[in-house]
Amino acid sequence: MRCVNTDVPSIDGKGLMMGKPAYADDLAAPDSLIVKVLRSPHPFARITNIDTSKALALEGVECVLTYKDFERRPVTRAGQGYPEPSPHDKFILDEYVRHVGDEAAVVAAIDLETALKALDLIDIEYEVLEPVLDFEKAYGHKSIVHNEPEIHEMFPIGFEPKKNVAASYNMHVGDIDKTLAGCDVLLESSFYTHAQAHVMLEPHTANARIDYQGRLVIYSSTQTPIHVRRIVSQALGYPLSKIRIVKPRVGGGFGGKQCVHGEMLLAAITLKTGKPSKIVYTRKEVFESSYSRHPMRFDIKLGATKDGQLKGIDMHLLSDTGAYGEHALTVFMVAGSKVLPLYNKVDSVRFNGEVVYTNHTPGGAFRGYGAIQGNYALESAIDMLCEKLGMDPTSFREKNMIREGETSPIFKIMGEGTEGTAMNMDSCKLDYCMTRGKELIGWQGKYPCQKDEEHKVKGIGMAIAMQGSGIPNIDMASAIIKLNDDGFYNLLIGATDIGQGSDTVLAQIAAESLGVDLDKIVVYSSDSDLTPFDTGAYASSTTYVSGNAVKNAADNMRQMVMEEGAKALSVDVDHITFDGEVIKVIDSDQIMTLSQLANRLYYNEDHKQLVATNSYVGTKSPPPFMAGFVEVEVDTETGKVDVLDYVAVVDCGTTINPKLAKVQVEGGLVQGIGMAMYEEVHYNSKGTLITNNLMNYRIPTRKEITNMHVEFADSYEDSGPYGAKSVGEIGIDTPPAAIANAIYNAVGVRIQTLPITSEKVLMGLLQKRQEENDKSDEDTHYA
Amino acid sequence: MLRVQLTINGYKKELDVKPDEYLLESLRKNNYLSVKKGCDSSSCGVCTVLLDDSPIASCTYLTVKADGHEITTVEGIQKEAELIADFFGKEGADQCGYCHPSLVLTVYAMKKELVKPSDEEIRAYLVGNLCRCSGYLGQHKAIKAYLEVAV
């Protein structure tokens, strides 16, 4: 391999580091109107009166819009394939506001100061309604979050807004009740996960202008430019053909930029005024007014035989989608579909539940997308079952987990919002990941714990995980490759680099197929006018889905070059060889370089442009696998937990760029560790998010992250480009469960509500001591 | 409007600013686009610039306070930035890049300020420069390698 599976530096890293203008706000027109949004102070209210006259009269204010200025066209902001599996329950602006931070009106002014003044001058009166603030009480609550007649599902997703249900789902394999009744050992438990925030460092940013051709051009920091174009068009009733979305460099997304954030308002302002405009969210707006991870409650029952055979999994899930149903059903389904197949030797599985509306900041896509929630619940429950069985949790997993060549009926039943696709695990090195991970962490000898000092105990724990590689039969990508004079190429892709390095990785795939060095591939990505269709950067799809499209297009280009080369050399195409740079006639000295051929084609003879294109849609979604092991140290006096070491062994097929992949897994681990231990979400009793800034929403810093070890299994996925599967999400999945398991192994405290804070561990320790004291009192009493 | 005199990246500049304007806003308005907005509360570090060679969070630093001082953005240390970028590239530690111009400035300031810093000292110096993509370890390796050659 010349380019694939090599550690080339990313193609854009240096320019970004040197501070070249590249992100959405860097590219805004200098005279852009500043767009600011008047946001609701109430979790649930109806606007009874709104008067914008004073704001409009302020000098420098160009435009003020309220719900009265828009036709009622419900859309979903979720950037998903069309028709979306999310309910169309959002209006650009509405008479109702449904969470603190929801949009009530929008202002555009010549500068920020004027825009902020104008917000203060809008007279607005609300009828405050009783909010739904507890997701466990949302179902059938007397307050209905969405009571408007226009909203609808695009196809059946279990949408029952009158009961505050955005989506529901129910599946089973076998008879779970019968299976569990026949088991020797049962476990029943519940787990809660919280609304982790993405904290991509670049806030949501977009700018809009009307170009010299009269087209609406939006530069948006988005993961899904094609979906943004469609949603803006639907919401405004403005022709798709007159909208161009350009995705510049994006300062992190993690799923947080898979929806539209502000683009609809911005487009309305620019279309109304004819002037360029821009919106840059404050960090408070990013927290309160975009979206976060769906909080969930899992009720799990597991059953096993006494020799450690897992027989049945029953998982009931309640998910909180907040005020709007973005990704409500799909995140919910992934919480099952990306964890249940891990244990494919069971007789029965049941997975069901509801996604409910509340008057909180909406839930939405976030790296791990349900899988991390499901992984925490199931992988914690598995360890709890192992304790009952008296089994080493690694032995239990080795006995029950999925292996190469096997399948699970779940794959066929559960997709993302629709039915799934049956598939065999053609590449699955989970067994290797387990063995190697155990070796690296030193499982034998360290499990379950080692008492260090008087108040310090070290414990180790682990979890296994799987993800997917795109959504089969839905996620589609295309690529165009153009040969230029002098023999270099342009690669045009709709794929969306949001910092994960896909422009680099896709260029490596193209360079490999074309037999050239990376500097011969000049990449243009994600401009809806210039680059081809691609559903976007989500569902761990880019390397696998877009990568296959690029490889197919490059293979086509290679064939075209060979045919034109053979013609130029006056021989049959079977009589030449082409190494990427030189076309040579077999058994002859006759040669022609690619540069000579290109110059001949474009300047001298033939006069024919070579452009190759191809597309790809996956017919399966081969999962990457991972075994994650963690060593923690617990202070039994304070409950403080330190992560001493994290070992991740990952099977993502061939790594196209091992260093980029490694850092991506490390970044995922740190986000997972953050979700497990550092990042807390708090609302006050009035429904206001308290943790709405980076001073009290704490993400891990470089002081906490001192030791991690990431390795890749030697794996090859036949259906992937050069053997690759995805690697974008898998890293985030295991930390919550592995850390919870390690803490239990250290001190016997089981935390079933994320995040795992020192307070919770200490309370657990105190409770345990109390119970031990009570027991010893009891023993004394009866003695 | 108040007139302030700053030396930005070695050039004397006079800027007209509002009394309550933060340095981040003033710099971006004047096309120093390497300085990024992240958190509005000096918590994330992406707005870092050097004030007389010391890193500060420009998102909460009033421009009028900088009157008469020297400001350095990454545009002012392009050669050093390119060198540091090479080390990051080798470790695959660049990812989204949004935090990198500010990180380069802080690493550059650290190199001037600390002699042979330990791992702990490096982490302590850079703790205010958050990164949500990389997991920090690749960056740490790149920074250590850079410090070894760039004496």
How are the secondary structure elements laid out?
The complex is a heterodimer of chains A (783) and B (151).
Chain A: H1 13-17, E1 33-39, E2 45-51, H2 53-57, E3 61-65, E4 96-97, E5 103-109, H3 112-121, E6 123-128, E7 165-173, H4 176-181, E8 185-193, E9 205-210, E10 216-220, H5 225-236, E11 243-246, H6 263-273, E12 277-280, H7 283-289, E13 292-293, E14 296-304, E15 310-322, H8 328-337, E16 348-357, E17 363-364, H9 371-389, H10 393-400, H11 409-413, H12 430-441, H13 443-446, E18 449-453, E19 456-466, E20 476-483, E21 489-493, H14 502-514, E22 521-525, H15 542-568, E23 576-578, E24 582-585, E25 591-593, H16 594-604, E26 611-617, E27 625-635, E28 641-651, H17 658-678, E29 708-712, H18 735-747, H19 758-782
Parallel strand pairs in A: 1-12, 10-11, 13-17, 15-16, 21-22, 28-29
Antiparallel strand pairs in A: 1-5, 2-4, 2-6, 3-5, 7-16, 8-14, 9-10, 9-12, 14-15, 18-19, 19-27, 20-21, 20-26, 23-24, 24-25, 27-28
Chain B: E1 2-8, E2 11-17, H1 23-29, E3 48-51, E4 54-57, E5 70-72, H2 78-91, H3 100-113, H4 119-126, H5 137-149
Parallel strand pairs in B: 1-5
Antiparallel strand pairs in B: 1-2, 3-4, 3-5
Helix pairs in contact in B: 2-3, 2-5
